[in-house]
Write a structure and sequence with these properties.
Helix 1 runs antiparallel to helix 2. Helices cover 72% and strands 0% of the residues. The relative contact order is 0.09.
């Protein structure tokens, strides 16, 4: 892929999802918010390294998957640097994921498949999942944005999470 096409893809992704990505990264860096710009840059650099951007079916899911990998690697570096088991993140990555490129590709494909699966959700359930997990909004904030009650938002989120769990279960069963 030519450099101009890569740059155009990156510009489009940043314009569409950059603000959400900044919130996503910052929300997971509780005590190290100063690291956010460096980690954002690493996410975009990794996107530039991809040769076939056209094969990415869901750029948003792919971007947040890359960001999650960058955050997990940062957490691992921090925990080994600080000599502590506690990291700034909610969930540490599997250790073997960081060193196995084949596992990274398989994970990215699984996220793309999951992204396609999520399109089967109702628009409100999908929006609730994205707003809660990716943008870090509270249930009340989501309810205000969607114009529904907090209880309805909980139902949407439960439906979306059940859908994700079932999708992951089907993916795991198909591997065995």
């Amino acid at each position: 892929m030519r450099s101009e096409a890569k740059q155009a893809f990156l510009t489009s992704v940043e314009r569409s999802y950059g603000q959400r990505l900044r919130r996503f990264v910052s929300a997971r860096l509780r005590n190290a918010a100063a690291d956010a710009p460096d980690l954002m840059q690493e996410v975009y650099l990794r996107l530039l390294r991809i040769n076939d951007h056209e094969s990415i079916l869901n750029p948003q899911a792919y971007l947040f998957t890359v960001a999650s990998h960058v955050l997990h690697q940062h957490a691992l570096r921090q925990s080994t640097t600080l000599g502590s088991d506690k990291t700034d993140f909610e969930c540490p990555p599997p250790a073997d994921l960081q060193s196995d490129p084949a596992m990274e590709v398989e994970t990215e494909q699984a996220f793309e498949e999951l992204g396609r699966s999520l399109q089967k959700l109702s628009p409100n359930a999908y929006a609730t999942l994205i707003l809660h997990r990716c943008e870090g909004l509270t249930l009340q904030q989501i309810g205000d944005r969607l114009g529904v009650s907090r209880a309805q938002v909980k139902k949407y989120l439960a439906r979306a999470l059940l859908h994700v769990r079932q999708g992951l279960g089907e993916m795991n069963q198909s591997k065995t």
